Prior knowledge:
CATH topology of the largest domain: Glutathione S-transferase Yfyf (Class Pi), Chain A, domain 2
Strand content: 5-15%
CATH class of the largest domain: Mainly Alpha
Bound molecules: glutathione
Number of helices: 9
CATH architecture of the largest domain: Up-down Bundle
Shape: globular
Order of helices and strands: EHEHEEHHHHHHH
Amino acid sequence: MKIYWIPAQAPMRVLALVKHLGIEAELIRIDPVAGGLHTPEYKALNPNKKAPTLVDGDVTLFESAAIMAHLCIKAGSDLWPTENLTEQVEVLRWLTWNEGHWVGAVGPYYIEHIVKKTFNMGPPDRELLAKSGKNCVKYAKVLDAHLAGRDFVAANRLTIADFALASMARYWREAEMPFEDFANITRWLDGLEQIPAWKNPWPDEKAA
Length: 208
Ligand SMILES: N[C@@H](CCC(=O)N[C@@H](CS)C(=O)NCC(=O)O)C(=O)O
């Protein structure tokens, strides 16, 4: 099994899961700055020219949520529930909410503060961020209310929905996301940091 990754939040979710479940995979780091996502070979695997991508025998997948589900099924892990379909629908709801709302809410902060720093793309656009607060707060209210009395997003235990929703939000302090009034979100994020594979999702240097 091969997993193509770059040091960014969507591949990070998948790498954390690989580590957490102890899955054997060849982890292939791509250099996006050197055009690694735009080669004909890579585009044949992922026409979006994004990471992550998984190749497992005849199966080639893009989209981190689908890749995480595939990995759980392979490893027999209920981080993607396959026995209890009510739980599966609950996880699916939050994965969908993530792509439909949450990524758009926290994404500007993540991109301006974290992506730009990682890839030497200059300072954050503070004008853009000033316009992003309202949308971020709108959806943070939804998530914070849901997390009241809960340690995890779905099914009362760790699922791939937690890794999906937390992958940008975990940087909330350095990315200046307006979460000060959302104690349930910050408690949930701090709780996830206790999971070793989440705290350090990246492959060892020699494997990277
Ligand atoms: N919804 C996709 C997002 C994939 C995505 O946007 N990947 C980013 C990294 S987080 C990427 O490859 N960016 C490189 C680029 O746009 O050049 C997923 O979950 O896999």
